[in-house]
Amino acid sequence: MAIKLTAESFLAVVKQSGLIEQDQLKRLLQEFKQQGVKMEDSRAIAEQLVARKTLTRWQADKLLKGKHKGFFLGKYRLLSLLGKGGMSSVYLAEHVLMRRRCAIKVLPAKRVNDTSYLGRFYREAQAVAALDHPNIVRAYDVDKEIEKDTEIHFLVMEFVQGESLQDMVSRKGVLDFIETAEFIRQGAEGLHHAHVAGMVHRDVKPGNLLVDKTNVVKILDLGLARFFNDTDEESLTVAHDEKVLGTADYLAPEQALDSHTVDERADIYSLGCTFYFLLAGHPPFTEGTLAQRLMAHQTKTPPPIEEKREGVPAGLITIINKMMAKNLDERYQSGEEVATVLAAWLIESADEKWMLSHPALAGTGSSVRVAQPDDKKPRKKVRRKRKKSDNALIDTNSANSSQDTQTKNPIPDPVLEAPAVQKTHEDELASFLSNLDSGVASAGTGVSGKSPSSPSVLSSQPPSSVIDPMQQSAVRVAPVISKRPAIQPKPASVIRQPASAIKPVEAPVTSPSSTTLNEQNPPFDFKTFIQTPAGMISMAVAGVMLAGILIWGMFALFGTPEKNVKKNSVAKIKKNKDSEVGNDPRQLLGSDIVVGSSPAAHFVTIKEALRYVKRNYRPDQYDLNAFQVITIFPGIYHERIEIDNEDNSDSKFPASVHLVAAGGASVVLAPGGAAPIINLSNNVEGFHIDGLTIDAKEAKIACVLNGNLPGTALKNMTIRGFSQTGILGKGSVGITANNQEVLLENIKFNPASPTSVAIRFRSDEENGNDALGISIKKCRFSGKMQAAIKFETNAFHIDIRESIFNQNDIGIWFEGVNRDFRRVTIANNTFYKNKNGIVFTSRPGGKSNEITFRRNLFYQTTGADLIVQSGFKSGSFSTQVIAKSNMTTDIKPPVAGEKELFKAARKIPKGQKILFDSTDSRAANFLKVKAPSTKVPGTNDGLKPYIGAVAP
């Protein structure tokens, strides 16, 4: 059982760890104390440090166990444990200075003296560092840390935010044929690059193929890979009698006999077994013990894939069977060949929509040449001579083939053939440009473990200590064990890239010198052309362009009137086929999901889009800048937005989802009825609503924000028609660190009743939450209302800035007796012709402090700019309040209870007026001061260099 540290002991461990700066820790502890955190409870303090993202959960758990060491490796800070394997542990880490996240693979200390494991660990480091390809996880650094008598050896690799194909199938079942073919094609590209570099993976399986957010496949875990130039005498697998390395369910027949003599064709077999798994949901052989399954790979034919999965296309069956051939010479001979035939099949089989989203496969810029081998210049390959024992259990009729020393690349099967594509200078330019692009875009992904936090890389550039793979090319490759020469590397400018990483380059069009038709060349046949894949793609592109022009013309002529979306309409996924998106949520996630009645929309209703995101989107917990966008087309939507993440709910709505009106267009929520239009409750994190109009003409309350809502924001909105409250915050709690406050920004309030309140905060009676971590910026409160902002609860860490309070009864009202208000900042606001500016019903409680009023402008307040209605004591209240650089037109003596804010500030002399550019609330320059000057020196605490809400 873990020890229970006292708070004092826990904080001592935290200080020893070096994870938090002393000043930062001191400041945080003061904030926790003010917030009522149980400072005698070490776990309560740890939970707050995790909530503030100052510590990770893994770090906090170790610290609570009294461990202050093991959080740093050289220049890297360890954040969490991603997983453990037979050889090493994998951690999520970040560079101490650069804050760049990566994965660190650490060899256990007990293995340091084991020549087998230590030698293999450094072979892995060298092998991975020699590779630089979008479909292979990159290595950045390899190092060792010596602490007293202990050596810690580790490899630094890129971290990929994604999931393995194993996990993908476990989560969603068997994959779509097109999707599967593309994943295997990319895997073949990556393997070919490794083979060209002179190494074999030897453990290809679904768990070692990761798919990132952009559907790029990354080959993981090269821990079992070895060089071709390992001699029998030097081979680790021979020296330590480890002949069988790999995973039994995906092991090539020859690899089960002797792992150290295999070539790239063993990886082709394993990739074929992976292909089988993605389509069938299980590996080729599932019955029997490990030894029996190994024997099955050598002696038995796997159950036909068409018996395990209905509708498998004949072309894919042919490819899978050839990849899994028992005889090495009957398989595809390289990853390049596999990628080529799969690209040809995809071009012939994929629909127009898929091809348009994968332009690299359509022609120019393709990462593979979809063409038959040139018979005039066959590429020669030398096969090693097999021993009799090699074929004893594999093929009894291969005597002839075993004697061959030279063979040609096999021509793809007829069903997979495609017209030859000539390599042009434009193709090479596309490859060159894609190398530049993919080097940035794909470097931000890397090793991934199955981790609850699923953090992602935050930088696309490797640290300065990165091992340059181009330098590895100077190393001379020794003779191959298998008697088969290694494939010669290609120039860097033509290294093949996956289709998803290449951008097409438009080839120049040469005008003919004459309009005379050559009778030997038939005229262009449009009917024939549109029946070809290229023709269909061209027509689709032309259609999209024409539709875009028509839509632009309609918007130019008629503007963007609000379009009614039918009540209770059923949301449809594109093409009314749930399977097309539902079976592959990554088709939408990562890019904008569109809602509206337009044919270009994915869903008709917001509700269905939110349901889809809840089911499929998994946020990046470590990258606070990552989010999923739902774009809403113009229209009137008769629906509500209701999200409740109860603690006991089975499925919670994910964090970091942004609901945005398209291009600032008119998007109105008008469901009718008395219920709130927006209701966000209980741990909804990072949810943004941006640009919507809320029509609450039949509702008392327009919006409800209930409970813990860190990072949640309502922005650029209009809330109108409510009779009681525009936004009701019930125990609303944000986090002041890392910009995770509850944000209300640039909202216009137009109530239906003069007794209403625009923003009202109350405590949550169920959990006792008060208002905490709230930021209100650039809002406009116009017209008759009881109060613009009203606090009916204790309030802590409240920020109200750059807002206009226009002709309200009360601008800001702190209601109640003996309430505590701490760290409340009211700055750079304009109070225009209100009855009262700021009102405290009674003197704040004894724990209140740092109530700050700075650079506010009060214009023609009929009552008091700031007043305490009961219990006012000027001396004690002054210790709770900070007032500086405020301006008022009020020249009369203060009434009872009124706080004089302006003794040390500027007061407008009697008879002088403030002149505004405009007093029309609809004008862009509303309440912009012309005279006198309201400019003041700037500060570094976020205050504007002027008095009031509007820049002069």
From TrEMBL:
Q: In which residue ranges is the amino acid composition biased (Basic residues)? A: 378-388
- This chain's protein is named Unspecified signal transduction unspecified kinase or ATP dependent regulatory protein cellular communication/signal transduction
Q: Where is the Protein kinase domain?
A: 76-346
**Pfam families (UniProt xref):** Pkinase
Give TM segment ranges: 536-558
UniProt region (Disordered), positions on chain: 365-415, 443-467
SMART domains xrefs: PbH1, S_TKc
- What Gene3D superfamilies does the record tag this protein with? Phosphorylase Kinase, domain 1 (3.30.200.20), Single-stranded right-handed beta-helix, Pectin lyase-like (2.160.20.10), Transferase(Phosphotransferase) domain 1 (1.10.510.10)
Species the sequence originates in = hydrothermal vent metagenome
Sample GO molecular function, one term: ATP binding
* SUPFAM superfamilies according to UniProt: Pectin lyase-like, Protein kinase-like (PK-like)
Q: Which UniProt keywords apply?
A: ATP-binding, Kinase, Membrane, Nucleotide-binding, Transferase, Transmembrane, Transmembrane helix
Q: Where is the composition biased (Polar residues)?
A: 394-409
